[in-house]
Amino acid sequence: MPQRPGTVRFDPVPPADVIHFGIGQPGPDLMPVEALRAAAADFMARAAAQPLDLNYGERQGDAGYRAALAAFLSRNYGHPARPEDLLVSGGNSQALDFACARFTQPGDAVFVEEPTYFLAHRIFTDHGLEVIGIPMDGDGMRMDVFRERLAERRPALVYTIPSYQNPCSVTLSAERRLELAALSRRHGFVVAADEVYQMLHFDETPPPAMATLIDEGNVLSLGTFSKIMAPALRLGWIQATPELMDRMLESGFVNSGGSVNHYVSEVMRHALELGLQQSVLDGLRPAYRARRDAMQAALETHLAGRALWSVPGGGYFFWLELDEAVDAVALKERALAAGTGFQPGPLFSCEGGFGHFIRLSFAHYTEAQIARGVERLAGLLK
Ligand SMILES: Cc1ncc(COP(=O)(O)O)c(C=O)c1O
Q1: Angle (nearest 5°) at CA 196 between 127 and 210
Q2: In 10 A of CB 333, how many CB atoms?
């Protein structure tokens, strides 16, 4: 049965003999084992002298973590970040769930990019939200359509992945980022900007993060260590102005022992302070660039003239348009049998669209595996 966005289940384990480009996670060779070992050891050495470091923490998250994070964000976003505007999160999925809990009511509308991150659909339906898709062009969400929809229905929340969007790898232009922030203030909705790939640029830097626009509107910038350190941390941050922060800090959950993940945030505080997070990030960019280039070369060799795509400037994904006659959902079954895999377009659509599109992630496999997997895929499309 074809999977619909709202019913899909997360499957973390790729079958061993399949080169599955549906897996949007780092491969084993990119896991920063030594950096995390050193950061955890450094933290535990301090905790041995100060055992109350293992106690409950503050509602916004440990002040030391937020100070180290603010310095890291200021450097990597090229814009000053304030520790008091940061709230520790359990990564962007938890942050999005939390934003829905704090800023929406069942029956409200959420505007999303069409197509968008498939696992976000389930979070919105968990909160009883009506998901309304806004089409995109090469500059991201189409603001002309956005304004038309806004005239019909005011959303409680707008969800955007501004840089190297999942699945299309499209980047929202600087002008549209500003317009979105301004509209949020004028019309009273909240923008949840999922900035998961903002720092993973391989060529030019993208437009300034939405985090730099929190003073321009009702903007929450959601950041995570999943793609720049390790997904297992399940740690991130929400950057927001004091007004939105106060509404989040009223949460009963946050008031029961402080926000999420004190232990992991302490480990990451040490990783930030020791410069380990910066080194990992600086190493990931060329590693992912090489994988991106390997996938581009393999696609050129095997699929030129049979598919259309743009070369992503960052992030994790190629988004391929195949011949209109191709049924991507049915093709996935055949691909798995042939030892490769991808995510089919309809998974990302709130309208069942993109039936002949597929998303390929280059994050999980080595260059040699990428070449082999693309060749297998092309064999199916002959
Ligand atoms: C757009 C987007 N948001 C969120 C996530 C998950 O983030 P986290 O691991 O911080 O929950 C992903 C991971 O693929 C993603 O692509």
Answers
A1: 85
A2: 13
Which of 10, 25, 93, 198 to mutate for ligand 1's pocket (most ligand atoms within 8 Å of CB)? 93
Residues with CB under 6 A from ligand 1: 24, 91-93, 117, 161, 166, 194, 196, 224, 226, 231, 236
Question: Tens place of pLDDT for every residue, the chain, 382 residues?
Answer: 455 666 666 666 677 889 999 999 999 999 999 999 999 999 999 999 999 999 999 999 999 999 999 999 999 999 999 999 999 999 999 999 999 999 999 999 999 999 999 999 999 999 999 999 999 999 999 999 999 999 999 999 999 999 999 999 999 999 999 999 999 999 999 999 999 999 999 999 999 999 999 999 999 999 999 999 999 999 999 999 999 999 999 999 898 888 899 999 999 999 999 999 999 999 999 999 999 999 999 999 999 999 999 999 999 999 999 999 999 999 999 999 999 999 999 999 999 999 999 999 999 999 999 999 999 999 999 8
Token pair for 178:
């500003």
> Among 166, 200, 233, 264, which is best to mutate for testing ligand 1, by the most ligand atoms less than 8 A from CB?
166
276-283, long-range: CB < 8 A, 24+ apart: 276/32, 276/35, 276/38, 276/39, 277/35, 277/72, 277/225, 277/228, 277/229, 278/72, 278/75, 279/35, 280/32, 280/35, 280/228, 280/229, 281/76, 281/199, 281/228
